[in-house]
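Researcher: Structure prediction, please.
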Amino acid sequence: MVEFSDVLITVIFLLALAVPGFIFAKLKMFSKTASETLSTIVLYGCQPVLIVTSFQGCAYDTDIAINMLITAGLALAAHLLMIAIVKLVFLKREKDDKVKLVKYLSVFSNCGFMGLPFLQSLFSGGEVQSELIIYCAVVLTIFTVLNWTFGAYMLTGDKKQISAKKILLNPVIIAIILSLILFFTLQKPFVELVEEGTVWHTVMTKFMGSLNYISNMVTPLSMIVIGIRLANIRFKHLITDKWAYVATGMKLVVMSFVTMLLVAYLPIASTIKYTLFFLLSMPSAASGAMMAVQYGKDSDFASVGVVMSTIFSIATLPLLYLFMNGVLGVTL
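Model: Predicted structure follows.
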């Protein structure tokens, strides 16, 4: 069983990995494009490899396949519920550009850059971790689809900005499609396809070991990126913008409770409940700042919202987990 202290310690030490990025950025030891460069490495290299290797950590199992569909459906439902909530809450100010960003930051979680590393760290090693990362990949797929549809429309109000191309060419989507094909056709990890003790078994073992080195980079590189972004935020802006507090409260509290209440009483595997709760209770999506730049919105405010929610998540994640575990009785 995962304890409150496990969640708290994991959050603290995970965010501690952001300290080197923060320090190096403050000392001007990184170039101005360091954050974007590292983000590209994580998004296009490490995350897709992590998804592939996680699928390789489990043999085909009908229960896992069914749970993937359940995870996708519930992730979609949670996002759509939250989209409806923010639409109602901000109905009278929906044309305000800053409010559009608040709505985006309230709905979309940093499930790739922080949620995935968090699950890796909290459930280190073993088949449970591999299963959780598979469900995480499913949630990332739903996030990506909604990000470039509802997310783009939320920020612009223009349906022409909805991009099927950006969905299909997203590395996470490509990785999960490839992984699913291998998962359902081979039905066992690569290493188990060759006879143990042969040269090919050694080759496959070393190959998977190399891929694991790349996938293990997700956690440190993701947190270094967050550290760099922390360093580039002015403290004054962080504590004086009331809309950043609104976005943070909506994301960390409202979205968390929406997800928690959606999954708590359903007769589904605890691994699904944990995956959905932790991923959708993460701080606001780091993509908020990038989307703001792309669509001509206030990227500085978006960055403040991401950073503020990241800081407050140190408290909200373990406390809300304590509520889910102690009050709602969800255990693993």
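Model: DSSP finds 16 helices and no strands in the chain.
Researcher: Thanks, that helps.
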